[in-house]
């Protein structure tokens, strides 16, 4: 039997602390991951890294300076780009 579970996860806030991406989710939980988990983020300056915004009603992250987008659900599944 194959069960495909899809879930919608929304972030309320995102910030960077010592090159750690910190995401506060709508359910009040938090998720953090090191920038080094993503090739583009690993090479970014601290200024570029901190220029992150929520997109698509909180279901994604966007770094304009780096032309990089990550989905919240992908991050939670361990896909960092």
Describe this structure in words.
- With 81 residues, the chain is an alpha+beta fold.
- It has a single domain (11-58, 65-76), classed as NE0471 N-terminal domain-like (2-Layer Sandwich).
- The protein contains 3 helices and 6 strands, in the order βββααβββα.
- It has helices at residues 39-43, 46-50, 72-76; strands spanning 11-17, 20-25, 30-34, 52-55, 60-63, 68-71.
- The radius of gyration is 13 Å and the shape is globular.
**Rg over CA atoms:** 13 Å
CATH class: Alpha Beta
Main β-sheet description = 3 strands, antiparallel
Question: How far do the termini sit from each other?
Answer: 29 Å
Assign the CATH topology. NE0471 N-terminal domain-like
Determine the mean pLDDT: 93
The 3D shape can be described as globular
CATH homologous superfamily - what is it? Uncharacterised protein PF10387, DUF2442
- DSSP strand count: 6
- What is the percent of helical residues? 10-25%
Helix and strand content put the structural class at: alpha+beta
**Looking across the biggest beta sheet, what order are the strands in?**
1-2-3
Indicate the low-confidence ranges by residue numbers: none
| Number of structural units classed as domains | 1
The DSSP helix count reads 3
Report the order of strands and helices: EEEHHEEEH
Residues in β-strands, percent: 35-45%
CATH architecture: 2-Layer Sandwich
Features:
3 helices; 3-stranded antiparallel β-sheet; 81 residues; alpha+beta; 6 strands; 37% strand; NE0471 N-terminal domain-like
A few lines on this structure:
With 81 residues, this protein is α+β, with helices and mostly antiparallel strands. The chain is built from 3 helices and 6 strands; from the N terminus they run βββααβββα.
